[in-house]
């Protein structure tokens, strides 16, 4: 198993290289680079004015250019070419594309992600500041979904076609049909001072006087702020995992070895948790990395916006709109690395659930 883990860890390096390389050159070809963002701000115009300022197709520096050149267009709008050159120098766009690419790779090998182009902070500093929100939303949402869905799915498999199975299926289907952001707005209207009750706070992860609270008051305050966002995130998260668990257990329950164990007089609980559970959980464990990553990062974007929570999802979205390349590539690098490492942990969980699985022999 140790040799397999070493091989997987070594595979992380070319995989990350491919992810960063592909996204680097795609982003460079995208219209409206950071230079044009800065120019638009200097001209007192919004982001929507970029096309009017710089035309419609990208130059080699990731900015925009017309047939006569982006600098000509900018000059026609009243900006001195020397000002444009200084902006490009500040952002590092005065260097060739390949030089910027290899410099970025060398910095990322040393985990040096640089500073944000539009925020007065380093990329690492921004990620660390936003990490508590994303960890809180992703961790508790995933934990609640798994703690509810797996026992519910097992129970539904054991009570297949019963009244319990039918009405719980209706409940999770209705919950899955409700968009999380729409449910979040409903929660705000009803419970966060929208039109009816004012029981829960609407902004932030903790209260302003958090430092003055006792330890148990801090715990209460923390979960008090998280109650509505987490509820909005998990409302539609039970359906897939519950039905996956149920179908996986049903498939195992109907196999020959279960019928043989029952014929030998084995107790139903022993059959379920000693034999069926081990085999049925494999497919659920296989989907855990993707579920965790989606809940941890991408799944919380709209919830962060609605509840005014500054997490990694919102940071990545804002950085993409601003073409803040260091933040974009830094977060992509960290997310990609985390996803690959979680995949390895998932393989280890396979062997823990079923020791018969031997990845090293494959």
From TrEMBL:
Residue ranges of coiled coil: none
Entry keyword set: Cell membrane, Membrane, Transmembrane, Transmembrane helix, Transport
Record field: transmembrane: 135-154, 166-192, 222-245, 280-307, 327-353
Pfam families for this protein: BPD_transp_1 (PF00528)
Main location: membrane
Span list, region Disordered: 54-76
Domain ABC transmembrane type-1: 131-350
Recorded topology in the membrane: Multi-pass membrane protein
Cellular location(s): Cell membrane
UniProt cross-references to SUPFAM superfamilies, sorted A to Z: MetI-like
Top-rank taxon: Bacteria
Stored NCBIfam families: PRK15133.1
Family as reported in the entry's similarity comment: Belongs to the binding-protein-dependent transport system permease family.
Name of the featured protein: Microcin C ABC transporter permease YejB
